[in-house]
Write a structure and sequence with these properties.
By secondary structure, the chain is α/β, with parallel strands linked by helices. The protein has 2 domains: 227 residues, 3-Layer(aba) Sandwich (Rossmann fold); 155 residues, Response regulator (Rossmann fold). It is built from 12 helices and 17 strands. The protein has a 7-stranded mixed beta sheet, sandwiched between helices. A 3-stranded parallel beta sheet has the order 4-1-5, sandwiched between helices. The longest helix has 21 residues. The protein is globular, with a radius of gyration of 21 Å. It starts with 24 loop residues before the first helix and ends in a 17-residue tail after the last strand.
């Protein structure tokens, strides 16, 4: 296919995509660095992809090209050109396109798709062809067990995430603020792994888990689960959720008139549109990892640049790690060129300073960032746990739903 007709994803406020390619003076001056990826513009993964990765890919491309292009060791600056499609939240579609990017298009670099299951699907392709893949939205303990030396995960994984969740809940229990938990999880790789991590931690901490329910990806009604937890006297809702079911559960909690002392959920909670949709979502807790109050170099500047370009805020968990992955890649190309083996060697030996803080990989896992819990408080998603990273203190019980 002619390169002038190849499309890349451009995220809009509605999560849609537009066809575009880099043109202009910069391209005429230097051969572009061609970077390929897929993102879900449609299907159940589209909400997360359109918030966490799409905007950051486009922001980074614009910023780098405004500086004259990506600095490539020994070559100077070259403009970035994206080659991308909507994978429709289909693993098979993503795998086929990544194979094509590596074999037919022979792109210089690859960026990952969104979500744990999708990263699992395409990581073997990147590994097969020797493309380092920096995944800012993959959460799985199994990554440590797989032979994927070219895959790097930036987020805290299920065990440290659940250690943070249970650590905070245990602290609240010791204060006499909570006692009984209703636990629900999405029946997807992500939810299953978080559940498998959460269950032993909760048992060890001596929690009374009054009920546990799973539900399918794409569920349309979780009100029976919520009613059951309410009837059982749960004062904690622990939802191991993806964005669509997270939004659904929160909306239906108000419908069934259930407002437990702690509402603690996962992916989607840290999205600004979640806050806005639920009138501030005051007191809602979830997976955290970042907000513009953190003291890392460039954090506030990143937040402001994201808002300026997209007229919306980055999310308060993985968005900063998506941008950090691009900062890391940019530094590697500047110091190692486009030799992917040398990029991998640099990833394996270097601690990187990013807008999300220090990141150091050991066997492909970021060992510098702990699991964290945040809470919406007066418009900001403050980090509560661990206390050494905190930007706020817990508000429990949570206020009534607005």
């Amino acid at each position: 296919m002619n390169m002038e007709r190849r499309a890349f994803l451009k995220t809009t406020a509605g999560g849609a995509v537009a066809v575009t390619l880099l043109r202009g003076k910069a391209r005429a001056q230097a051969r572009p660095v061609r970077i390929g990826y897929t993102l879900s513009a449609t299907g159940p993964y589209s909400v997360g992809a359109g918030i966490t990765q799409g905007p950051n890919y486009l922001l980074w491309q614009e910023q780098v090209n405004a500086r004259g292009g990506l600095l490539v060791k020994g070559e100077g600056r070259r403009p970035i050109e994206f080659i991308s499609i909507d994978d429709r939240s289909e693993h098979e579609t993503a795998v086929r396109f990544y194979e094509k990017l590596a074999t037919d298009d022979k792109v210089d670099l690859l960026l990952p798709p969104w979500g744990t299951a999708m990263n699992f699907a395409v990581a073997p392709v990147a590994n097969k062809y020797g493309y380092p893949l920096l995944g800012p939205t993959a959460v799985s303990n199994k990554l440590k067990e797989l032979s994927l030396p070219y895959f790097y995960s930036l987020l805290a994984q299920p065990d440290p995430i659940m250690e943070a969740f249970v650590g905070l809940l245990k602290d609240l229990k010791a204060q006499g603020k909570i006692s009984k938990i209703g636990l629900a999880y999405v029946n997807d790789l992500f939810g299953i792994e978080l559940y498998n991590s959460a269950a032993p931690h909760l048992k060890q901490a001596g929690f009374d888990v009054v009920d546990t329910k799973s539900y399918p990806l794409g569920v349309k009604d979780v009100s029976p689960i919520l009613k059951g937890f309410k009837a059982a006297g749960a004062d904690v809702f622990l939802g191991l959720t993806y964005p669509p079911d997270n939004i659904l559960a929160t909306a239906q909690a108000k419908e069934v008139d259930w407002n437990p002392a702690v509402w603690l959920t996962c992916v989607g909670t840290a999205f600004p549109f979640y806050r806005d949709r639920f009138k501030g979502a005051e007191g809602v807790m979830g997976i955290a990892g970042w907000n513009p109050k953190v003291k890392f170099a460039g954090a506030r500047e990143y937040f402001d640049a994201h808002v300026k370009k997209h007229q919306k805020e980055p999310d308060r968990w993985a968005s900063a790690f998506a941008y950090a992955s691009l900062q890391i890649l940019e530094r590697c190309v500047g110091e190692a060129g486009l030799d992917r083996k040398k990029i991998k060697e640099m990833l394996d030996r270097t601690e990187f300073q990013t807008v999300a803080g220090p990141i150091k990989f050991v066997k492909g896992m970021n060992v510098s960032t702990p699991g964290m819990v945040g809470q919406w408080q007066k418009g900001e998603f403050d980090i509560l746990w661990p206390k050494s990273w905190a930007t706020g203190t817990p508000v429990v019980p949570k206020p009534a739903w607005a």
